[in-house]
Design brief:
The structure is a homotetramer of 378-residue chains.
Chain A lengths: L2 E2 L4 E5 L6 E7 L9 H11 L16 E3 L3 E2 L2 E2 L4 E6 L21 H8 L15 H19 L2 E9 L2 E2 L7 H9 L2 H6 L8 H16 L6 E8 L13 H10 L4 E6 L10 H4 L3 E4 L4 E4 L7 E2 L2 E2 L4 E7 L9 E4 L5 E4 L10 H33 L3
Antiparallel strand pairs in A: 1-2, 2-3, 3-7, 4-7, 5-6, 8-9, 8-10, 10-16, 11-16, 12-13, 14-15, 17-18
Helix pairs in contact in A: 1-3, 1-9, 3-9, 7-9
Organism (chains A, B, C, D): Spathaspora passalidarum (strain NRRL Y-27907 / 11-Y1)
Catalytic activity (chains A, B, C, D): 5-O-(1-carboxyvinyl)-3-phosphoshikimate = chorismate + phosphate
Cofactor (chains A, B, C, D): FMNH2
Chain lengths: 378, 378, 378, 378
């Protein structure tokens, strides 16, 4: 459905070809300083039309808060937010209406809903993610106040050009420990903090753009200062909720955290993260972090990091042999220009979903912990 | 929490060191033939102690249905099921009680719950999965009646020995189309249907077993005959629920479906699955299946396939340098013998979670579809 | 929280002193004809300022549909709707800001949320019900298409002037069988279809209005043509969901269905509803209807009827001795004129909540029933 | 469905004619002292066969805790509990199998589920409430530790013999302030603390018992020391959840809290509860308590009290004219002896549901409050 979360919960609405898109955020704690200025930056980062590498569709995407705040502070009541669709042209796709776009949602939406929408895949549009990003910005503010939680995502591969993501690689761990959003954005539209591969990534995208083709990539995300104890065994382990959140994003193909798929090849004796005493934190930490900050489904205070695979965009301008809805073979070419790689734009969306997962997990754990303390004999 | 699903819903209970483990299945349709004989086989497949490759801990794991059926048919009321813990020895881990096991849940459970359980990681034990497998067996029966849905999982890699999982590889597609549980089980404890790599996998496990070490692997799962239209945009896309389900399993590190992480390197023009008319099915199908049977978060009738990464087991018999709960450095060695690879045993658990996701998604879609038809003017 | 329902689900936002109020409706079946014209009538019926008996606060309350429909039909995606707050004056209550209004939500909201909102009781305002009414209008349309379901509420008592609500009274049963919204609205602002008591009710309200006081009342609601089989044992029995829905409305004090509290005095031999064969319907019906259309938590096809108690409005213009937030005794008088009885305005709100409960229950039962049929051997 | 609650959540299973009945309690805080001895007393109070006024069906109803505790303390993991059905005789009702019992769930269950169970109404049996009572006992223990919360229910009317329940009656308020479970149980099977009406109640029940008939009644419940701030606007107001909980009990017909239905006749000027400063508590309290301890859906620290109407039991031994499933007129008489009034036995069940509602509401509020404090600048 269109709701996500248990206590800190978001419900979204809107598709590309309607009046507006937005969300309701339930469960936000009262007393949080919050205005549109807190929400807009991530929406702006998500916005298309920011560079020659991405789609020219221009949207202002100005968010409005309709409820739930007063004098710049949250009341604890639902926060309604929306963004106008200024650029919707319901007739735009009409020429290609005979064809379900390959690897797009057009055909499955009709099978599921029994109706055909102007946009084809209705809610499968990336525009649906605006509500998520707006809600995520609120969650981020809560987390920042709670424990100075930092969430930073970046592009770690484009096509076959990839950063070294080996969890035991020192450079990679350094990036995870230090990378900021400013750095990620400062390096141009590609949003990859590794200058060793960045140039090459740009070239790859340009190559596919010029070929009227598209190419996928991987977004890696790190969470620093995550409170210890988040995640709910057994079904709502923290990695399970993160995987759910990430695979609910359009165009995703995979998720891995910590050592990930590569970790299956590392024997336990090397993969296990030994405990060591940290004098500064006055608690146990782990010497290595193959666990990716989560053990037994619960955050352990180390950096949480994970990667999300984004497929090559399904909508391409070059001609494709396929079939019409009625089954006649034919050739389809999407009109206009299309994003050769959605991966860089996914960065703030991945951050938003991460914040939603963590904020909800935090509030559930707060419930347990505060109740546990209130029933304690001491 | 310990519940999963919206309409077809399972709630589990139990840890290793208590009286029993089990579940309640809510929302099962009435009139389904169901006895313990339907549930036991998958529990038996999940059971440890089946071969010299796995742990000798011997459990009978006989399931009992407590409610929800009469004369061998479901009533539509909650189905209570349980399995006795026959082998629980709360004192067993006492010697190592000073140390949180590295990369295990011991330390995070204490941080989260504020209490220390005999088993250390409480519900993080693989024994918790019994309730899932029992519930999954019910879901599978529903799906089999609905559309002859077939769910088959198998080991596709152990350590660095791997089947070719390229979605465009013909051998791999052949396996996905034809593999049966009988075949998977018939090839010995390794549960890999590819004879080209099977022997080598066994050797890898034996090597790590002999070294008192452990090694991870990948389980691949295919769903055939899945009804079209399952999965709920936007947050509960079918792949999102599958990812959630899989990453909620102990020891998992990643999930990918269809072309997965490798698919990020294939340009859109080749990655897109063109539509073709299928005369037999009298509907559109896709020529290739990089989408893994899911488009826009919705099943499209092609085979659904995905892979799940399982890390090397955290509990190993060899000595590990680590620290005690109080932070003193020391050396820990788990007593007794331990499973060098949990991956083969994960096969029926992956199948169970898949069935739970699909059965719930099917019942939600049935709700929409039946209501849509009942409000139609025709 | 601010969400209600499992499959057909509404989430609302907004309080009196913000930009707008509204809702998101999830789970609406696709293909339903729906425009603002379907939603506006119930909002208009809910609107204050319609007669000299009610508050002069004038709101246009024009609803706008933001998403989820195209060309006048639902897509199956979330339906976002909102109504502007045109008359909000955040400073309006300032003079009485020192006092928590007695029997209002001012004090408890501060205790709960730790912040004080301009409106005092934040979401406790009747304005919050706009989102419910908008969502209920959609649910009603579904139900009307499904089985010509009719939901009609009316005022059955004001203060101590009451219709005879004895379930065995013929006149009362006649009203339940025939009353329409047109009749209810046609008899003036009091919305009581019984001309024997209507005049007296008006006089009672006028008396309390002139005394700057308020008076409560009872709203009775009947549902005709409800499909058989709705309601989910054991916790979500149909009457339990209706009770939940009704008691979630501002100013309610009680709920009873069928014979209600009076029914506790009727012995089983008379209270039981004997079954009889109905030739027209070709099924069993009941001779009497003390059950109020629900048996074992499940609708039985008879008329569902229930009553909801509304207390005398807490905000009155006369002076009240009470205390300030700091505990100093003093005298409070609300400024301006206030509704002497909210009961008549509650009529469309009760109908809306009823529709929301039934539509969700219907879609859950459709899920079970369609799945049951799909697994049947025949 | 068969689950209730959001954080502190119970899922129940079992009907009369199966192996056992029970529940899983999720979300219980860790570190709570808990053994079967804490749960058994309320189950024993619920048990039939305790007096000549109630049904002779004899059940031992010994509860067993299967998981979630160790060494007498909760772990924070799900608590599985069950009670064996020792007295189930699936053939017992066979003679009357031709007739759906009037005002019972037999007919609606078949309509809903499409299958006929041995017990007729499946989960509509009072035996289903065992899981609720077991879970409620856990919730009560939490609440008692939290703030010494006391929950006491008692019979306030049988047939037309009733205590004075006027909220402004001094004797009634005295009872609410002081009544204990010991007192309620100490006065014999009728469980009414008012000696002025108790004798007469017993006579009423005896009269109907001798006439092979049944009679209904009202159970009133008071909660003392409830923490302030519980209840979730807008849909999950505390009274809404209580109403939901109560109307989900078998045989209930109505719910009212505070002044209830009678309160609709009291003008606002008298109904409003003025605030006064309480020197002992160092906070505002209310002079009167027509609000029943809940304002704006949120507990205000005063006593919460409400009443629940229970209908006359549907199963009676005297002959009733009715129809068979096929529609033939005939006469039905239930075999054996049946409870002439279920009302006294409902007392511990009402208490259990109250505890479940409050414990969940408390934990949700703890989540908000603890998070609010953690984001505060001070």
């Amino acid at each position: 459905m269109s709701s996500f979360g248990t206590i800190f919960k978001v419900t979204t609405f809107g598709e590309s070809h309607c009046d507006s898109v937005g969300c309701i955020v339930e469960g936000c704690p009262p007393g949080l300083a919050l205005t549109e200025d807190d929400v807009q930056p991530q929406l702006t980062r998500r916005r298309p039309g920011q560079s020659k590498l991405s789609t020219p569709r221009n949207e202002k995407d100005q968010v409005k808060i309709h409820s739930g705040t007063e004098h710049g502070y949250t009341l604890g009541s639902p926060i309604g937010m929306s963004v106008k669709n200024q650029d919707h042209r319901p007739g735009d796709y009409s020429e290609t209406d005979l064809y379900p776009r390959p690897s797009h949602a057009d055909w499955t939406y009709i099978q599921k809903y029994g109706v055909k929408s102007a946009s084809g895949g209705g809610r499968s549009s990336a525009r649906e993610t605006i509500g998520r990003v707006a809600a995520g910005a609120v969650a981020e503010k809560v987390l920042a106040k709670v424990n100075n939680v930092e969430i930073v995502a970046f592009v770690s591969s484009i096509g076959n050009v990839s950063m070294n993501r080996d969890p035991q690689d020192e450079t990679f761990q350094k990036v995870l420990q230090t990378v900021t959003r400013e750095e990620v954005d400062g390096v141009g539209p590609i949003r990859c903090p590794d200058e060793g591969v960045r140039e090459e990534m740009v070239k790859v995208i340009e190559k596919y753009r010029d070929a009227k083709d598209s190419i996928g990539g991987v977004v890696t995300c790190v969470v620093r200062n995550c409170p210890i104890g988040l995640g709910e065994p057994c079904f709502d382990k923290l990695e399970a909720k993160l995987a759910h959140a990430m695979l609910s994003l359009p165009a995703t193909k995979g998720f891995e955290f910590g050592s990930g798929f590569a970790g299956t090849q590392i024997p336990g004796s090397k993969h296990n993260d030994p405990f060591v005493w940290d004098e500064t934190k006055q608690r146990l930490t782990t010497k290595t972090n193959n666990s990716g900050g989560i053990q037994g489904g619960i955050s352990n205070g180390e950096n949480i990091y994970f990667s999300v695979a984004f497929k090559s965009a399904a909508t391409i301008s070059q001609e494709q042999e396929t079939a019409t809805y009625e089954g006649k073979s034919g050739v389809l070419a999407a009109r206009g220009r299309h994003d050769p790689s959605v991966t860089p734009r996914a960065v703030p969306i991945v951050e938003a979903m991460t914040a939603l997962v963590l904020c909800d997990a935090y509030m559930i754990q707060q419930s347990r912990n505060a109740t546990r303390l209130s029933i304690s004999d001491n």
